[in-house]
């Protein structure tokens, strides 16, 4: 028993480091001066150490703490993405004018952000239904408070209240769905759930109801249609850094939980089709792969069409992230190794291009005091480097070569075609063309209009330029040299209990 606990702890170092970081932030904030960035620096150091500890887990494939948490290549890949996104968000926050008015409370901000990161790290490896819900709530509760952190802003407070209401309802539905699944299968461990389903269940209606309720909770976190209504308002009311982590890291962690739950619990990997597609063990009543495919299609259609009408850059990026959730879900409906690896490739590239778009929008907001796309007219002339960077990020989000976004869509579209989801790929292709309009609208406003007479060029500090460079390089490099990423993704589809 003691040996097992000690061994489990040895595979739990990244999460332990984040917990210690959270405690260090609380203690450090007691002694820090009001305008100090010490809390941010403490969290940054903690994230770097957690990242190093995660890298040492590469190649591990086992479950710890009595098999409630998996440390496998799939979890490690996603933990790297979560930590990487958190590092960027901390740097964004330390350079954000939105938080300057709240310098005396930065300790609370980074403490909550640490709690959110802890929840996301556990989400991608949870193999027990009860733990899945617990870490889901850890992530959600921290994010509720962070959205309303700038409490002097009425827009922020309103967004936080909406987020809490939507989140509480979806979490409650998900919890009820999990309880039904436990009742039907008599198990909380997802491997035992799989065994029970393979043996046959006598209550298929309740089982299908439980799956639907679980999809409600996870669909809310991923912000996929029809559970997307919260995203635009919440992104608009939150600071740019929090909107960015909700759009990237939170989405990635929820996708990891969804893929693990569906792959381990509902797939019979003993029977494979010639195309390498896993066979589901769902009851014949509801074809859940088609249901998820329809959700993906609706996310692409609604996200892109609604983004056309947005003037606020945050709302536009919110609907863009809804559309991208649809593209990523294409990899889920495939139920194959190729589908999972394409999800990993997509999320890795999505991290850089989406964070880059949010960061550039934050710089424009801080310098020009606007979030209106209409007021972006001429900004490309006043901030050439930042305007070019925003153009590259938006071109990548569209999925055009030679950016990483093209490779991301190429792989996930290719996987869907190989699995026979032609109609879904057709919708994805059409909506990609639609997305070009609202992305290029931003570029048009920046460069095809002259700035107001007498408007001076904006000056950004060296930290901002370095940050843009760090986000730009992978976005461009992965468009021409992507083999290492693809190989890493293929090696990371190994999920504990399946291989």
Automatic annotation (TrEMBL):
One of its GO terms (molecular function) is quinone binding. It comes from the Bacteria. The chain crosses the membrane at residues 12-32, 39-59, 74-94, 106-124, 130-151, 163-185, 205-230, 242-267, 287-309, 316-336, 342-364, 385-408, 420-440, 466-486. Keywords: Cell membrane, Membrane, NAD, Quinone, Translocase, Transmembrane, Transmembrane helix, Transport, Ubiquinone. GO terms for biological process: ATP synthesis coupled electron transport. This is NADH-quinone oxidoreductase subunit N. The keyword Cell membrane applies. The keyword Transferase does not apply. It is found in: Cell membrane; Endomembrane system; Membrane. NDH-1 is composed of 14 different subunits. Subunits NuoA, H, J, K, L, M, N constitute the membrane sector of the complex. It catalyses: a quinone + NADH + 5 H(+)(in) = a quinol + NAD(+) + 4 H(+)(out). Its EC number is 7.1.1.-. It is a multi-pass membrane protein.
